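Field reference: sequence -> structure
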Amino acid sequence: MPGGPRVGVLLPQTYMNDSGRSAGPARGALKVDLDHVVAVHDELDLPFGDVRTRLGGGLAGHNGLKSLRRELGSPDFHRVRVGVGRPDSTDPEVVAAYVLGAWRQPRAEVEELVARAADEVERVINS
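Structure field:
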């Protein structure tokens, strides 16, 4: 929206588990306050289709969030948590294959989820 907040989008070229290696230096270079950082990430602990927002909090074993906390110096950044559900196994290899594999839901449902997540990011930015 014209006249709205200035927004920068960072698409790290690192693996997700190392995303803080890009976000930390970018935040420093752009002099962005920590409470103006928004991370969008998959969330196994939410059912597919849920989108929730939080400021700070636990990292739920998410390696990408751990990397962000380490490089940003704190977990107190905004997160848009995109529910992808959890496989029926707790085996780390099965879980990794689940989150890294192809979507199991119909394309239209995935597109709708991405659109709702984008709307939530916009809401966070404008609040």
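Note: The first helix runs from residue 20 to 30.
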